[in-house]
Amino acid sequence: NAGVTQTPKFQVLKTGQSMTLQCAQDMNHNSMYWYRQDPGMGLRLIYYSASEGTTDKGEVPNGYNVSRLNKREFSLRLESAAPSQTSVYFCASTSVGEIYGYTFGSGTRLTVV
Amino acid sequence: GQQLNQSPQSMFIQEGEDVSMNCTSSSIFNTWLWYKQDPGEGPVLLIALYKAGELTSNGRLTAQFGITRKDSFLNISASIPSDVGIYFCAGANSGYALNFGKGTSLLVTP
Question: How far is B18 from chain A, CA to nearest CA, in Å?
Answer without folding.
Answer: 24
